[in-house]
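From: lab user (bench 3)
To: helpdesk
Subject: output format question, protein + methionine sulfoxide

Hello, I'm new to running complex predictions and I'm not sure whether the block I got back is the full result or only part of it. Here's what I submitted:
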Amino acid sequence: MSSPKLNPESILKTLRAAFCHDATRGDLLQLTATKLHAVGEPYTGIYVYMVDGDSLVLEAFAGRPTEHTRIPIGQGLCGRAVAERSDIYAADVTSEAGYLACSAETRSEFIALIRQGDSILGQIDIDSDQLDGLDAAERIAVQQVAEGLAALL
Ligand code: SME
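Helpdesk reply: Thanks, we reran it on our side. This is the complete output you should expect:
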């Protein structure tokens, strides 16, 4: 497997330092989005959705804004990931039934759930303008960020 462009440890270091300096939950979510976006392509848009009852609420993002600020669980790829309790990778979003478009430029999307034990707190949603933008190594790196973030929430 090739090495990922994303270095999860470097982002987690920043998050842990912020946590030690009394960063709020909102600060940590925003820092996660900002740092992932700063990696550059294929990380075009980063959206952090958190579970609120039977919906996902957009609590932080970096990149293009989205009109999807609240997504019912079960709808779109984001809502489906929570309903199925599984990360989702759409290498080509145009072939996904139920996909909710944030931008016409988006070609692929990866959703990594943020879990604490059995409970799902939310998700990191990566939109890429590249078709099949995140290979297996990148996806594992994003999952590591989601896991490390969960430990701070
Ligand atoms: N594409 C997502 C919606 C979120 S926006 O892309 C940021 C979906 O299908 O659920």
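A quick orientation on your result: The radius of gyration is 14 Å. Let us know if anything else is unclear.
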